Recover the amino acids of this structure.
């Protein structure tokens, strides 16, 4: 089974950029999308004919945030939209899909914003998401994926020193937030299997960053420790374009 996560930076924009063809090439059974920037009916309209069943979750604010899960050949047993916490559930940021052997949780973690203005809220969000995943994990393993909006180590971004504690996505509070997931038993599957590989999943649109590979690894596949032995491969698909992020994923035995 192949599970893939992709921040598409606008589903209505990416479908104009060979998205359906790319989905076919990627060949995932479950595809999790973040930042669809569309209402649920608009997501279904944009993805009509893609060959997948679609669950979408939209922000109250139109054209903002939002997530979706696409499935082919396997249907979720149940779906939960949001965390069940009102203050966190107005931006369409998390969908939980239950499958026979595990949960898939896809998330678009809030960005701390310029000047780190939203960092206090971000810390609350991280704690709430971890509590949600911990509760699920008591029932069956969890695959938490998405744009986590953090680089966990120096190896995960091209320019760590000038960004540390200055740029959203590489503050110690955010790093600690990711450490909390890993310490709770949710393994960073890419780093587990590729401990020394330098590879990124997001590049700024400015200054030819992608061509120069001045990037950040913001997108993750975190896997319950019990499920990690079943992860045959964890990958970052730099060759796929259409967004400022590229797809990441895992193959399960």
């Amino acid at each position: 089974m192949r599970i893939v996560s992709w921040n598409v930076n606008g589903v209505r924009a990416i479908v104009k950029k060979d998205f359906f063809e790319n989905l076919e090439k990627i060949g995932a059974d479950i595809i999790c999308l973040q930042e669809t920037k569309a209402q649920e009916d608009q997501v279904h309209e944009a993805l009509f004919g893609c060959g997948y069943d679609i669950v979408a979750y939209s922000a109250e604010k139109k054209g903002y945030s939002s997530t979706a899960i696409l499935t082919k050949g396997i249907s979720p047993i149940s779906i939960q939209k949001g965390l069940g916490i009102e203050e966190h559930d107005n931006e369409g940021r998390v969908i939980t899909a239950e499958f026979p052997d595990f949960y898939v949780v896809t998330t678009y973690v809030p960005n701390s914003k310029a000047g780190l203005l939203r960092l206090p809220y971000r810390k609350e969000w991280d704690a709430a998401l971890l509590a949600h995943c911990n509760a699920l994990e008591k029932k069956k393993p969890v695959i938490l994926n998405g744009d986590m909006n953090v680089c966990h180590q120096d190896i995960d971004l091209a320019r760590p020193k000038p960004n540390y504690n200055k740029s959203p996505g590489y503050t110690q509070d955010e790093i600690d937030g990711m450490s909390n997931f890993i310490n709770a038993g949710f393994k960073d599957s890419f780093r587990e299997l590729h401990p020394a590989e330098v590879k990124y999943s997001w590049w700024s649109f400015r200054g030819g960053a992608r061509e120069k590979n001045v990037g950040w690894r913001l997108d993750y596949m975190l896997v319950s420790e019990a499920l990690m032995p079943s992860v045959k491969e964890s990958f970052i698909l730099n060759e796929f374009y259409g967004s400022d992020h590229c797809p990441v994923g895992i193959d399960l035995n």
Summary: The chain has a mean pLDDT of 98. The longest strand covers residues 2-7.
